[in-house]
Amino acid sequence: MRARYIIGLEGSVDPTDRGLAYGDGLFETMSLRGGKVQRLALHLDRLRLGCKRLELPLPDQSELERQIGQAAAHIDHGHLKLILTRGTGPRGYAPPASPDPTVILLAESSTVIPATELTVAVLSQCLSENEKLAGIKHLNRLEQVLGRLELASLDADEGLMLSTSGVVISGINRNLFAVFGENLCTPSLNRAGVAGVMRRAVLEQCVELGLKVEVRDLLASELLAADELFMTNALVGIQTVSRLDEKVFASSVMASRLRPRLAELDLGSVDDA
Amino acid sequence: MRARYIIGLEGSVDPTDRGLAYGDGLFETMSLRGGKVQRLALHLDRLRLGCKRLELPLPDQSELERQIGQAAAHIDHGHLKLILTRGTGPRGYAPPASPDPTVILLAESSTVIPATELTVAVLSQCLSENEKLAGIKHLNRLEQVLGRLELASLDADEGLMLSTSGVVISGINRNLFAVFGENLCTPSLNRAGVAGVMRRAVLEQCVELGLKVEVRDLLASELLAADELFMTNALVGIQTVSRLDEKVFASSVMASRLRPRLAELDLGSVDDA
To answer: How many CA atoms lie within 13 A of B31 on its CB side?
Structure first.
């Protein structure tokens, strides 16, 4: 097993790559600050879980980290997208017995400062349920693309997606937390959704702060009874939900309390990387 | 809108292509005989439906058919794989306002003569349900890849996949028909599965022959009561199921009756192409 690295926009991908043919692979989008990847350990953790679920070989980790470090080094403020596929192969769903994975690294500078709040609309486009694919960040993302197409016709910054069985899962590319008094709640992602790196960082902070946080199935109607909602994403951090469809939320107390702690954590993980 | 054509194995795909990033596209695998695509009209029909569902621009049809004809021309016996993606774009699920689609054409010779029967095992890997994605041949195929991985450990040629709600959908890459006396039945594909070109050809032949055929939800237990089962695929035609898990099926009467009629149809569609 020997990974093939494709670095930057000038690289080219083989037309028989299984990432293209079947979405047979994973990705990570990581925040870069001062030439370092933020929370690299958490991103690599999720990548490792995805490899296990898809029976996909993880490339040699020290080489992977070296390549990531090199791609990130010249970016002061931006992001790095990593795509890992099962590599090229003959036609047909059957994976090659010993695949040589493809790793694509695309780094980009960005000076956008994300808003601290956003408006959200419940989408009719659902997320389908498959325990084997839930939680990991695989390349089969048509439901998110369809969600984004639907959002374009709505007056909102983000869409809330339910599973086909009707429970709340997440935004199109953000996880969701609901605050009830001093307690937090975030949807279980056992059947659908992506277990975000920033979601994990928030869950860890809640434990540190002694806040009670529940991970469970959550109905959209329950969200309307929350004191506060916020969403999380590795690139934009924590954003308060100011409106969900018609319902206005005035509080951003919990988001404001957690946000600076996650910034601190950021600095920590630069050293971990 | 201007499609970018990538022809043959020497072509290269942009690392920011949305087909790779999100599986944001469609594909068709078409049988080639004497330099002509078999049932091209049916393949293009399904491609058109997929484009509509994904709000993806269909490339200029006469140019598309010209390129397909050219890629197919030098192959006497083989197949042509077509991949259509939403093209390149900036990072993020939001599709570009005016995407320039990518069309990849990969033709291959093959002298394999498919078996006329196969053994089938019911898989534990399920197909998730999403009405918007059901029936079309999009690029999000991890469930089929996982099905194929599971099949590798089983003593069978093909796997039978159920939906997450427990109804029979299809093989990993074949559609299924059950025969009860003179009547046929094939699973409804409104919530999962791919509406195969050969499945459509068989349905049309049943009508021609005055056979009653039902398209409906079907349970695995019902299959055990069938007189005969057969599976269909555009490249291999009709194959009788000789065994489903422990249950042996002795009849191949209906498959043998339909098979020559589909070969005839084949010749017809060469002229249509």
So the answer is: 21
Residue A145 with chain B: CB contacts under 8 Å: 18, 22, 24, 54, 86, 93, 95
Whether residues A177 and A204 share a domain: the answer is yes
Indicate if the alpha-carbon torsion angle B46, B52, B54, B57 is positive or negative.
Answer: positive
- Give the side-chain half-sphere CA count within 13 A for A147: 30
In terms of Cβ atoms closer than 10 Å to its own Cβ (0-12, 13-18, 19+), residue B74 is: exposed
- B235 → chain A, closest CA residue: A92
Q: What is the pLDDT of residues B199-256, one digit of tens each?
A: 999 999 999 999 999 999 999 999 999 999 999 999 999 999 999 999 999 999 999 9
Contacts of B54 in chain A (CB under 8 A): 142, 145-146
B50 is written with which tokens?
């997929």
Contacting residues of A for B85, CB less than 8 Å apart = 20
Verify that A220 and A172 share a domain, yes or no. Answer: yes
Same domain membership, residue B177 and residue B124: yes
Q: Which residues pair with B243 in a beta bridge?
A: B119, B248
Q: Are residues B69 and B90 in the same domain?
A: yes
B192 and B88, same structural domain? no
User: Which stretches of B120-213 are DSSP H helices?
Assistant: 142-151, 197-208
Domain boundary among B56, B74, B109: B109
Contacts of residue A150, Cβ cutoff 8 Å, sequence gap at least 6: A123, A124, A125, A159
- Would you report the helix, strand and coil content of chain A in percent, each value rounded to 5? 30, 30, 40
Please give the ipTM for the structure prediction: 0.94
Q: Is the sign of the CA dihedral A129, A134, A139, A143 positive or negative?
A: positive
Contact between residue A240 and residue A265 where contact means Cβ atoms under 8 Å apart: no
- CA distances to A180, A182, A262, B238 from A227, in Å: 5, 10, 21, 59
Range of the structural domain that residue B262 is part of: 117-272
| Predicted confidence (pLDDT) per residue in A63-117, tens digit | 999 999 999 999 999 999 999 999 998 889 999 999 999 999 999 999 888 899 9
The number of domains in chain A is 2
Burial of A221 (C-beta count, 10 Å sphere; 0-12/13-18/19+): exposed
CB pair distance less than 8 Å for B22 and A145: yes
State how far the Cα of B122 lies from the Cα of B160, in Å rounded to an integer: 5
pTM of the model: 0.95
Query: Residue A212 sits in a domain of what CATH number?
Result: 3.20.10.10
CA distance A183 to A163: 24
Count residue pairs from A and B with Cβ separation < 8 A: 173
Check whether residue A26 and residue A55 sit in a common domain.
yes
Which of A109, A126, A148 corresponds to the end of one domain?
Answer: A109
Question: Would the pLDDT of A264 be above 70?
Answer: no
